[in-house]
Design a protein that fits this description.
It comes from Methanoculleus taiwanensis. InterPro entries: DUF2703. This is Molybdenum cofactor biosysynthesis protein. It holds the Pfam family DUF2703. This protein has a four-stranded mixed β-sheet. A three-stranded antiparallel β-sheet has the order 5-6-7. The chain contains four helices and seven strands; from the N terminus they run E-H-E-E-E-H-E-H-E-E-H. The protein has one domain. With 135 residues, the chain is α+β, with helices and mostly antiparallel strands.
């Protein structure tokens, strides 16, 4: 059996999970929680899981609050998901730009400023070729 790997990359501005914008911090905590939950199950199947945290420069704010699974963006793995951006006072404080906007996603008629755990888990499994049924 060949060993598979799942590399989950979380991109955000700010120094770390505690010093990023509020919504990026919520997304980061959700990523860590989901990985903690699915890692034992995946490792039983011979799949190693690695989390990479990429701190972006302030000028790359458009890429902040994004998650990649084996290099594929979340929005490419979840059918019907659209990326948008909304004003973010927290990012404005970090970047010094009064009109700072942070990434958000729209899915199934809802807008999410931080990525919900169930969408993170679904994208992780899809990146591995494991399909899940929609709720």
């Amino acid at each position: 059996m060949t060993e598979q790997e799942l590399v989950v990359e979380w991109r955000h501005i700010g120094e770390d999970i505690e010093k990023t914008c509020e919504r990026c911090g919520e997304t980061g905590r959700a990523v860590m929680d989901v990985i903690e939950e699915i890692r034992p199950i995946l490792e039983e199947e011979g799949i190693t899981v690695r989390v990479v945290e990429t701190v972006l420069p302030n000028e790359a704010i458009a890429q902040s609050n994004s998650i990649l699974f084996n290099g594929v963006p979340l929005e490419d793995l979840i059918e019907g998901m659209e990326v948008t951006s909304t004003p973010c006072a927290s990012c404005a404080c970090i970047t010094g730009q009064d009109d700072a906007a942070c990434r958000a996603v729209e899915y199934d008629g809802e807008r999410y400023e931080s990525i919900p755990p169930e969408l993170i888990a679904r994208a992780a499994l899809k990146a591995l070729g494991i399909e899940t049924t929609a709720e």
